[in-house]
Amino acid sequence: MPLNILMVASEAVPLAKSGGLGDMVSAYSAALRDSGVETSILMPAYPAALEQIGGGTPVARLSGLPGGDGVLIRAHMPDTGVPVLLLRMDHLFARDGLYRDENGRDYIDNLVRFASLAAAAARIAQGVRGIKRPDVVHAHDWHAGLTPLFMKLAGVKARSVFTIHNLAFQGNYPRAMGGWIGVPPELLVPAPLDDRSIEFYDTLSLMKAGIVHADRVTTVSERYAREILTERFGHRMEGVLHSVASRLSGITNGINTAAWNPATDPLIARSYSVENVAGKHACKRELQRAFGLAREPFAPLVAIGSRLTEQKMADVVADAIPHLLSRDSRVQFAILGQGEAHLEQQMRALAAQWPGRVGVKIGYDETAAHGLHAGADMLLHASRFEPCGLTQLYAMRYGTVPVASRVGGLADTISDYSLDLGRSGAATGFLFERETVDGVIGAMERSLAAFGNPSLWHALQRNAMQRDSSWAVPVARYTKLYTSLTDARPATTRRRKVDAPDTPTFVDERAAMAAG
Ligand code: ADP
Ligand code: GLC
Questions:
Q1: Across residues 438-455, what is the average pLDDT?
Q2: Which of 165, 245, 299, 438 has a CA positioned 20 to 30 A from the CA of residue 475?
């Protein structure tokens, strides 16, 4: 029997996306399927998703989910053809936002919405006529966190994997609500860590449910898997994570290298490649035009493209920018982002104060994101924590050199250049340690100095563009993880297979303490 995996997630591009989670679920599923593993995705039938799949076919009715009855609709991803099952429960999912209303408030029934998603996954694992039973159910982030528990309660044979994409969002709800969604009372009370209670600081936690009930737990980079065992990065979940350390490992994400390829990208001004980067100049001109920046071909142009939030240190970055503008009379900033209102306002104020040198677009704009990575010289990507980070991977592929915090996936995917080396070696960017304005300025100054040395800069650019951010290695690692849980094996592959390095490497707790 060919290995069959069901992904369970609340987002998958292009049907739904609020951040990197949606990118990862879709790109990974497509790559896994290409490697010979039968893969499908279960996600909510949001209106935009239904519209994009052009109808789909209802295949089953599921009654008695925590939020009532639902219908499973079968369709395919419009771009990759990966099979997708949409859980249609209009009273829960037919809304404009994924998680929040137009005033930015979380929907009050999010617990019931996502408990229904997890319960639907458990039903599929149990067996639903017309749908192939998966060998492994792979649940992503807190929205799908109840899946492994519901699978256990249903007594299914399929095994479960739970991937933590961002520990900062845990899906914690009043404990008293547990009864409504079918969690047995004994799992809602404080208990020793090795018990499987999902009580967490007097709440019930969907993230904790995923962590303690899944057969394997992964995070989206190796370093983040160690970091989250520490108080600094654990978001109070570090104790729980310690208790499952022997089942916890990190697998660094890849990216969709077809969609993010400067040689073929239809969304950028001119194509280019590592062999011939000339087209990047045209992209830079276009970026300067689009963001209202002075048309200076040799000015260092810094991109910022991320959610404007505390996680992304947007507060610190906004404070650092005026210093950088005064210290270097040519440097320019193109800022694309959306997030907390006061941070958006701060960015707009910078553009007003520094016309021609700071350009800001507030909003979510996928096309602009491609133009940003193609046209910039460097990407400033500060984060207080970063489980993996895809933005820096996109930037590198476009020869835009990242300047980033030394945390999580940023530290795992960017190799720091040290000025005293005087040569690029294998370096692909610049890393800084602290969460301070001085930290940002220090690294930016190192990068600006390197930018002043064209042969060095081109070497860094080349290294960055040549970094392998494909899914080949991560797919091999996940496959090894799945096949350690089940006897099913991938079918003969359609593409070249890659040997996984010796994984899974489960987290070494002592190394983790050192990382903190
Ligand atoms: P996170 O999921 O924590 O926000 P990632 O780096 O993993 O971080 O993923 C962010 C994703 O969202 C990337 O695909 C990035 O290009 C995209 N993105 C973030 N902000 C914007 C924006 N304002 N416009 C377009 N794309 C954006
Ligand atoms: C989350 C994380 C981000 C990661 C993404 C995809 O959004 O914040 O670091 O890249 O998930 O795994």
A1: 96
A2: 245
Give the number of the ligand closest to the Cα of residue 394: 1
Mean pLDDT rounded to a whole number for the chain: 94
Q: What's the pLDDT tens digit per position in 467-493? A: 999 999 999 999 999 999 999 999 975
- Nearest Cα to Cα of residue 148 among 161, 132, 165: 161
Q: Is 48 exposed, middle or buried (0-12, 13-18, 19+ CB in 10 A)?
A: middle
Q: What's 167's DSSP letter? A: T
**Mean pLDDT of all residues in 100-122:** 96
Task: Give, for ligand 2, the residue of 7, 17, 21, 412 to mutate: max count of ligand atoms closer than 8 Å to Cβ.
Answer: 21
pLDDT in tens, 9-58: 999 999 999 999 999 999 999 999 999 999 999 999 999 999 999 889 99
Q: Nearest ligand to the C-alpha of residue 360?
A: 1
User: To test ligand 1's pocket by mutation, which of 167, 390, 396 has the most ligand atoms within 8 angstroms of CB?
Assistant: 390
Distance 388 CA to ligand 2 centre (A): 5
Question: How are strands ordered across the β-sheet holding 159-164?
Answer: 57-65, 68-76, 83-88, 38-44, 4-8, 136-140, 159-164, 216-219, 248-250
Torsion of CA 278, 281, 287, 288, to 10 degrees: 180
Taking CB atoms and a 6 Å cutoff, what residues make up the pocket around ligand 1?
A: 19-20, 23, 305-307, 336-338, 364-366, 369, 388-391
Number of the ligand closest to the Cα of 379 = 1
Can you list the domains of the chain with their CATH numbers?
4-254+470-508 (3.40.50.2000), 278-466 (3.40.50.2000)
Q: For a substitution probing ligand 2, which of 166, 224, 255, 393 has the most ligand atoms within 8 Å of its CB? A: 166
d(CA 390, ligand 2 centre) in Å: 7
Å from CA of 392 to ligand 2 middle: 11
Residue 217 backbone dihedrals phi, psi, to 5 degrees: -120, 135
What's the pLDDT band for 419 if we cut at 50, 70, 90? low
Structure tokens at 363: 């909003």
Q: Compute, in angstroms, the gap from residue 220 CA to the centroid of ligand 2.
A: 7
Instruction: Please determine, for residue 510, whether its predicted confidence score (pLDDT) is greater than 70.
Output: no
As a whole number of angstroms, the distance between CA 276 and CA 381 comes to: 26
The pLDDT tens digits for 327-340 are 999 999 999 999 99
Residue 192 reports pLDDT greater than 80: no
Q: Give the rounded distance of the alpha carbon of 289 from its chain centre.
A: 30
pLDDT at 516: 43
What is the C-alpha to C-alpha distance for residues 143 and 261, in angstroms, rounded to an integer? Answer: 31
DSSP secondary structure letter of residue 274: S
